[in-house]
Write a structure and sequence with these properties.
The protein has 189 residues and is an alpha/beta fold. 37% of the residues lie in helices and 26% in strands.
Length: 189
């Protein structure tokens, strides 16, 4: 097997959080793992991992079990175990500043107020690619916490689910063509 790269979805563990807007990162990476026939499933101290083969690479698909605010612990653990540098990680994260199901790839950047990205910066760096998956807009009379921890309505869930295959196609493009070509092709579509 050639290169090893990490695909990390940010979300919260437990039944209580299934179907919440904050868990869209978990949903996207799990769908990637299902599509790409994971060879093994491993439990680490800070995450659940599927090892997949895609385009001649080992893709380590990760769902941290640390809750959103400590996602960096999982990344740090995997960097050490697999000997992977931060720039070989793609993070999938929810973004209430983007309309529902809109996607935006970034090569690096700030946390944008997202606690999961803050944790990644605290335990590694900001030099990793990210795919922001829109869950917004934030309603005027709702707090950020209540909104991101709230569950999708049936209509919202339908819209998000319709975009999942496109998100997987975009992630596959990232692993084959790199971040710049993928940003040019998939951002704002």
């Amino acid at each position: 097997m050639g290169d090893v790269e990490i695909l990390l979805g940010i979300g919260n563990i437990g039944e209580k959080y299934v179907g919440t807007r904050h868990n869209i990162g978990f949903v996207v990476v799990e769908k990637f793992a299902e599509k790409n026939s994971p060879r093994t499933k491993k439990k680490f101290k800070h995450s659940l991992v599927w090892e997949c083969s895609f385009a001649g690479k080992k893709i380590v698909v990760c769902q941290p079990n640390t809750y959103v605010n400590n996602s960096g612990l999982a990344a740090k653990e995997l960097f050490g175990f697999y000997g992977v540098a931060e720039d070989k990680m793609l993070v999938v994260v929810d973004d209430f500043n983007l309309n529902l199901a809109a996607m935006r790839f970034r090569q690096s950047g700030s946390d944008g107020g997202h606690n999961g990205l803050k944790s990644l910066a605290q335990h590694s760096s900001k030099d990793y690619a990210r795919l922001r998956f829109g869950i917004g807009p934030l309603p005027e009379n709702e707090t950020i916490t209540d909104f991101v921890l709230g569950k999708f309505s049936a209509e919202e869930e339908k819209i998000a689910n319709e975009k999942l295959d496109f998100a997987i196609e975009a992630i596959e493009s990232y692993f084959v063509n790199g971040i710049v070509a993928t940003m040019n092709k998939y951002n704002s579509k």
